[in-house]
Amino acid sequence: MNIVLLDAQTLGNDSLDSISKLGNFKSYQITRPNEVLERLKDADIVLTNKVILNKDILEKLPKLKLICVTATGMNNIDLEYAKKLNIEVKNVANYSTQSVAQHTLMMVLNLIGKQDYYDDFVKSGKWAESDIFTHINNNFELYDLENKNWGIIGFGNIGQRVAKLANAFGANVKYYSTSGKNTNANFVRIEHLQDLLKNSDIITIHAPLNETTKNLITKKELDLLKKDSILINAGRGGIVNENDLASALKGGIFYYGCDVLEVEPMTKNHPFLDRSIQHRLLITPHIAWAYKESRKRLIDGVEKNIKDFLDKYKD
Length: 315
What we know:
The longest helix is centred in the C-terminal third of the chain and has 23 residues, at 292-314. It is built from eleven helices and twelve strands. The chain starts with a strand and ends with a helix. It folds into two domains: 2-95 and 292-314, 3-Layer(aba) Sandwich (Rossmann fold); 97-283, 3-Layer(aba) Sandwich (Rossmann fold), CATH 3.40.50. The chain is α/β, with parallel strands linked by helices. α5 crosses α7 (157-168).
């Protein structure tokens, strides 16, 4: 079968040899919207991370039999229409649980320890000019995680993994399930989101983007946050209203870290580029999922999805 990968660049430089051996394989680093139909006209199987495959595209691809999403989220695929056309759609679940949880912890530790400030202080040569062995900036404090209240929004696999890491540091973990389905007797569930926001020193978001979570955190919710609290979005852009967030940071109450934005890549003149809020903001370019081991699990999962399909197709 003809296998086409539309956006190999999103997978880094990992080897795709195991997948290329499963059929007539062709790979493109990136694919723009006007290139999709030409590249998929003879494809039986397509691999894509973010390229949109909507009804207008799918109805023009009569040979297509399988869509392998090189991610967990499938919002770029018209799933209902694919089903109508008997096109199977497969994703890879839970491949990045460990790396996203670890990345979340890294962001929290960075912000609670003001690592960017102190790193810049040393590298700028200011420490070399100091009269004493240390430098304490009296404009802010550093805090232990022990006995801090850590609230988790979204309690799926990643949220539960973050809870275990937070517990290891002695934090008091509570959570809010955005779906209402995730319950765990080992943790205290906060029934109301407002309670979690008001009482937590650290809040981390690990929820999907859907009708329930869209704009879950706006000005009204941000106004509830404690002084010097930390809010991290490691779920999806769009859960936190970015304009409200940027405005709230100017008040100097809390700190914010995120690995996701509503529109990616970041738009020019984005409110988070305001230099007046940079000291309260930590952003990474959607890389929490992309640690080496996670990418290996992802590629292995895609390979398995193709093999399972081919075995069934032969039968």
